[in-house]
Specification:
- The structure holds two protein chains of two kinds.
- Chain A is mainly alpha-helical.
- Helix content of chain A is about 75%, strand content about 0%.
- Chain A has a two-stranded antiparallel ribbon.
- Chain A is globular and about 70 Å long.
- Chain B is mainly alpha-helical.
- Chain B has one domain.
- Chain B has a two-stranded antiparallel ribbon.
- In chain B, a hairpin with a 7-residue loop joins strand 1 and strand 2.
- The longest helix of chain B is centred in the middle third of the chain and has 36 residues, at about 280-315.
- Classes of the chains: A mainly alpha, B mainly alpha.
């Protein structure tokens, strides 16, 4: 069995890397096939691994470095792979939404795109995208903070390359640079936290910070937590590092859907959840320092409020979705913080929300992308009456909006119900947070409905009248994601219920 | 503290239709089917030509399923999920006429208000789960009684949230302000189902949580909440009645009438809750009256909305001023409308009278001053219902010159109307039978004390007090009518055709009709504005908010510029000329030598 586990982990990381190199070297006509094939293989491996080991767990320790062992005078496990319920949820998000986005990109990125026509040579695009798939798979299956950091930095690089893909577009290179500076800067903070942790405790386990705090050095543990949080906030676009995400919308829509909604931005939230579930509950005497947990909760709520407040000013559909992504991720941060405060339900809801929100938000971005591909614009004011001309995109937008705002039976309802129930169970502040989350839910849904009504119903505007029919690959990708939005609770709820708080998780 | 959601398989197995659920489920199924028969010819009108029938039927199916699921759910999570599905599907249906801006706005207002109510319901469910540890209805009573004993404040918060949620859905004042906008905007079959059943599902929530749950678990708390419920009911009934009398549009009139009838049912439920601890017999009467009125009003209100739809179908307008003289042109519709109007006005032997009769006894015989006042308000509301029923029927069918030509609506629509009329008649003639069934829906032993009426009559408090046998009335009425027809028929003369006489000058017949605007002018002027609706102000954020939280402007922009400035300053050291570099090297070497000398020393 351990052989199968080893092959599984290695395939998850190596197949996309190999695919990236292959697609770069392959002839132009074969690029689409290789990319989609690689994504499908990764998805199959991921589903198999989750199905076989998702709830039970599997791990593959890979030892450390001789030089570090010499300096610290003992053996330190620096690298390793691990799959458990939490990693399974994020891995599924990464793999399955990746298939849809790569399939979509094979039609979107090219000369037929009416908004931003580009070259039909997609090889360099696929190279970075597949590199990212591998890096993200490695990130979620990492067993230590150091290995997670290595893959983290690779995703930062891929994000820079992909945001700036449309090099001639106004502001694309500047947006890529800004994203790189912010996420890279956050990465440096994360690195500082990891190195200090290694030097002081001699361990880079996820639960090491909590052990530091329990061992009496609460001040240092708080500092390390804050540095880690800075890294997570920068990666996930939380306040005060949230300004790169709306600007990153110059990227092609599949990139926005995959990296900046469903996958990369979840890395920060995943990191926090991973540390929280490995540390145990603060109330029980173990766990992360109370100050850091409070800070995470406050910043999460602040991010939610700031993001939703800016909804009502947006005239660009993708910027609106970017702000909605920031709000959705703040849900996960709030859930993680509440989990650290002692509510396992909140942590479970947060984990499930990563998958549910990713599927829904990915669907929204791809639907918006179909509109810009076909109609040549993404401005809300220029689009109306889309339902008649682009029915699949309209239905996709609707399903995505229902998923993200939490309407049964779509995925978001289950994750939000679990998360907010977890908040209520803590009582006092928890009930206040629950009220804020519910108010945001109602406001966001109302605004999405208003925008959706304006864009999809009514008489078609000139841009919509002249729209071209969408490609089959794009429609297929949208349908795949719609099915995912409905199917997530079936696999996601058992996985989420298996997540608990405590050392050794 | 629960550590995980129950497994999905276990969650989705929690359905049960007990007697209370059946009381609401059967009217749901019947009305959904009847309206579905009515809908196809109605939707074939020109105004709905551009809309997609597929969207309508998909939303309609989801709507029906959602409502059934809401009454059949035996689990809090399933209840909430069905509630949301029902709300969303009904929003799509209300906004069916997408090209009409007013309809879209009304649907949006409806959506925002009911979604906010759903959020309150969600929070209440989560609080109950957090407290009780179980999501099923089986544990609901235990949770409520534990809360009442240990954390009464939290119990009242939960009950307040539930109250807001159910009152919004039921259309009680002032939370039901979405009703007068949404019901007229929706197509007629949808309005029929919305008024007939969906509003009643809000009242089902009250009965399930407050009567079935709370009154058994914590009677004192239930009695405390009975007062605000009855008060909301009284206000809705009276204000809704006045607003209906002032309305000039068929569906707006019927929408306000829905609010009024909802208020009456809420009054009955509230009175039942208040009376339960000390007067269980009267409480049972009030609740039976409320439940019977629910079922009867479902049929009556649905029929009225279908009639309004038929009128709109033929005349092209909803305004009462634009109608008139349709009695002979649309005979079947007119007779069904007459039946429905008499029913809603509360004429014995028709259905609404039975419900109101029982509620009246429950309130007036109680001896509590507040409840007696509520009973008087019920009478006021009944008088108002006579007034607006009269206005509706007269303006639409009687007043005005007779319109020639066969203007009757298509067969499917007629069939639906006749089915509902038949149901109303069946409910009217044998109330005892239905009341016997409804008594099984109330949770015994709290409400099981009174004489359960069965068969042909309603023997409410006893054979000598409040006895009412509608069949006798029907038989007696038929005798009297038969005798009258015989008497009149003997002395019938041939009709003469004369011109309308208008006091000296011969004016045209068009000036004769009584316009709808002429009804109740003094009342309209004094009380017509009594139903003050909610007006949403568009919230505008001050202009300085967004720039002030722009982190780029205050933090990152200056930081990056500073970094770039430092870089550029350092870059000036690289001039590219060899001389400068040699000078730097010399200086550096001198500094190093100086350092070494200092070290030595």
């Amino acid at each position: 069995m351990s052989d199968a586990v080893m092959w599984g982990f290695l395939l998850l990381v190596l197949v996309p890397f190999a695919g990236a190199l292959l697609v770069r070297a392959a002839p132009r006509r074969a690029a689409d096939t290789i990319a989609i094939g690689t994504a499908v293989v990764v998805a199959v491996v991921a589903v198999w691994m989750v199905g076989a080991y998702g709830i039970g767990g599997a791990s593959l320790p890979l030892g450390g470095l001789a030089v570090v062992d010499r300096v610290l005078a003992r053996h330190v496990a620096l690298f390793g792979f691990r799959l458990d319920a939490l990693a399974s949820l994020v891995l599924l998000a990464n793999a399955l939404i990746g298939v849809a986005c790569i399939l979509y990109a094979s039609a979107y990125v090219g000369s037929k795109n009416r908004e931003i026509p580009s070259s039909d040579d997609r090889r360099s695009f696929y190279f970075w995208l597949l590199l990212f798939v591998g890096a993200m798979s490695g990130l979620v299956t990492s067993a230590t903070l150091l290995q997670l950091f290595l893959f983290w930095e690779i995703t930062t690089l891929c994000s820079w390359a992909l945001i700036g893909y449309y090099q001639e577009e106004h502001g694309a290179l500047a947006a890529a640079y800004k994203a790189f500076l912010m996420t890279g800067g956050g990465g440096l903070a994360l690195l500082a936290s990891i190195l200090i942790l290694l030097a002081v405790t001699g361990s880079v386990d996820f639960g090491a910070i909590a052990q530091l705090g329990a061992g009496g050095r609460a001040g240092l543990a708080t500092v390390l937590c804050v540095l880690l949080l800075v890294g997570a906030w920068a990666k996930s676009g939380q306040v005060p590092f949230h300004t790169w995400l709306p600007d990153a919308m110059v990227a092609p829509s599949p990139v926005s859907a995959y990296l900046h909604a469903a996958s990369m931005v979840n890395a920060g939230a995943y990191l926090l959840l991973r540390v929280v579930t490995a540390s145990g509950a603060t109330a029980a005497g173990a766990g992360l320092p109370a100050g850091a947990v409070t800070l995470a909760l406050v910043m999460g709520v602040l991010t939610l409020v700031v993001a939703v407040a800016q909804f009502f000013y947006q005239t660009d559909l993708k910027r609106l979705l970017a702000l909605s992504t920031i709000a959705g991720l703040s849900y996960v941060f709030i859930g993680a913080a509440l989990g650290a405060a002692g509510s396992p339900l909140a942590a479970q809801g947060a984990a499930l929300h990563i998958l549910a929100h990713g599927a829904g938000k990915g669907l929204l971005f791809l639907a918006a992308g179909t509109l810009s591909y076909a109609c040549g614009t993404r401005r809300i004011g220029d689009l109306s009456g889309v339902l008649r001309r682009q029915p699949v995109a309209a239905v996709g937008f609707l399903v995505g909006a229902l998923t993200v705002t939490g309407v049964p039976p779509f995925a978001g309802f289950w994750s939000k119900f679990t998360l907010i129930s977890g908040a209520v169970q803590l009582g006092g502040t928890g009930i206040l947070v629950a009220v804020v989350l519910l108010v945001e839910s109602v406001l966001a849904f109302a605004w999405f409905l208003w925008v959706g009504h304006r864009v999809f119903l009514g008489t078609p505007s000139p841009a919509v009248e002249a729209s071209s029919p969408p490609a089959k690959a794009m429609d297929l990708a949208l349908i795949l994601l719609m099915v995912l939005c409905l199917a997530v609770p079936l696999a996601g709820l058992p996985l989420a219920s298996a997540i608990g708080l405590g050392p050794g998780r | 503290m629960a550590t995980a959601l129950p497994p999905l398989a276990q969650l989705f197995a929690q359905w049960r239709l007990d007697a209370l659920g059946l009381t609401f489920a059967i009217p749901t199924v019947v009305l959904v089917l009847v309206a579905a028969v009515y809908a196809p010819p109605y939707l074939a009108q020109a105004r709905y030509k551009a809309e997609s029938p597929r969207r309508f039927w998909l939303a309609y199916a989801l709507f029906g399923v959602g409502m059934l699921a809401a009454v059949a759910a035996w689990d809090l999570l399933l209840f909430v999920a069905s509630w949301e599905v029902m709300t969303l599907a009904s929003y799509v249906l209300v906004a069916h006429e997408t090209s009409e801006a007013g309809a879209v706005r009304a649907a949006f207002k409806y959506f925002v208000m009911t979604h906010a109510a759903s959020a309150c319901l969600l929070l209440a469910v989560m609080l109950l789960w957090a407290e009780g540890g179980s999501l099923g209805f089986d544990g609901l009573r235990a949770t409520l009684s534990t809360l009442a004993a240990t954390r009464p404040l939290l119990l009242h918060v939960v009950l307040g949230l539930l109250f807001i949620a159910f009152a919004t859905k039921a259309g009680l004042y002032p939370l039901g302000d979405w009703l007068p906008d949404a019901h007229p905007a929706a197509p007629a079959p949808v309005s029929a189902v919305l008024s007939g059943i969906m509003v009643k599902i809000g009242l089902y929530g009250f009965v399930r949580f407050f009567v079935w749950g709370l009154a058994v678990a914590a009677p004192a708390a239930a009695a405390a909440w009975g007062y605000p419920l009855a008060a909301a009911g009284v206000v809705s009934a009276v204000l809704g009645g006045f607003a209906a009398c002032a309305a000039g549009d068929t569906k707006v009139l019927l929408a306000y009438s829905s609010i009024a009838q909802s208020g009456l049912i809420a009054l009955g439920i509230g009175a039942g809750l208040v009376l339960a601890p000390h007067h269980p017999v009267l409480a049972q009467l009030a609740l039976l009256g409320a439940l019977f009125h629910t079922v009867s009003d479902a049929a009556v209100k649905a029929l009225l909305f279908l009639v309004a739809g038929s009128l709109q179908y033929r005349t092209g307008s909803r305004r009462l001023d634009a109608m008139g003289g349709l009695f002979h042109a649309m005979p079947v519709t007119a007779w069904t409308a007459l039946l429905a109007c008499l029913a809603i006005a509360g004429f014995p032997p028709l259905t609404a009278f039975t419900g109101k009769w029982l509620m009246l006894q429950g309130t007036v015989l109680s001896g509590s001053a507040l409840l007696v006042a509520a009973g008087i308000a019920l009478l006021v509301a009944s008088v108002l219902s006579i007034l607006y029923a009269l206005k509706f029927f007269s303006s639409a069918f009687l007043a005005g010159p007779v319109r020639a030509g066969a203007l009757e609506v298509p067969g499917a629509m007629l069939g639906a109307q006749l089915t509902l009329a038949g149901i109303i008649l069946a409910l009217s003639v044998t109330p005892g039978l239905w009341l016997g069934l409804l008594a099984g829906a109330l949770p015994g032993p709290t409400f099981g004390a009174a004489t359960v009426p069965t068969g042909w009559g309603v023997f409410a408090v006893g054979p000598a007090t409040g006895a009412y046998v509608p069949l006798l009335l029907v038989v007696a009425g038929m005798w009297v009518c038969g005798l009258a027809m015989l008497a009149v028929g003997r002395r019938r003369k041939a009709p003469r055709a004369v011109r309308t006489w208008m006091g000296g000058s011969a004016l045209g017949a068009s000036l004769a009709p009584v316009s709808a605007g002429g009804f109740y002018v003094p009342m309209r002027e004094s009380m017509g504005g009594a139903y003050a609706g909610l007006r949403f102000q568009a919230v505008r954020m001050p202009g300085w908010v967004v720039p002030s939280v722009n982190v780029d402007r205050w933090v990152f922009g200056p930081a990056v510029r500073a970094g770039r400035g430092i870089g550029e300053a350092l870059q000036r050291a690289h001039t590219g000329t060899a001389h400068r570099y040699i000078i730097w090297q010399l200086l550096g070497a001198l500094a190093l030598i100086a350092l070494l000398f200092v070290e030595r020393a």
